[in-house]
Request: fold
Amino acid sequence: MFCAVYKSLKKQQTYLYVEKKDDFSKVPQELLTLLGQLELVMLMAKRPEKDLVQVSIDELAGSLSDQGYHLQLPPPPIDHLKQHQQHKQEQQKKEGKR
Reply:
């Protein structure tokens, strides 16, 4: 069995997986409106052999089975300032222990 993967042309790095190509009947209308125009990216096995980059096989299969679709959102942005501040604090703690 296959599922269809679409990317949102309105929301970067946002993908919608549906059970059947061009069948959005199980996807809430509000979500479709939010995503805007969708472009087919690929057809893939519903249960791929390996986890995908941002979603596990079990999560994808569960969403498709329970809801009839899976929404993949972009990863959260990296807060480089926060990382830098944490690194500085760790360095200061190490220097204080000497």
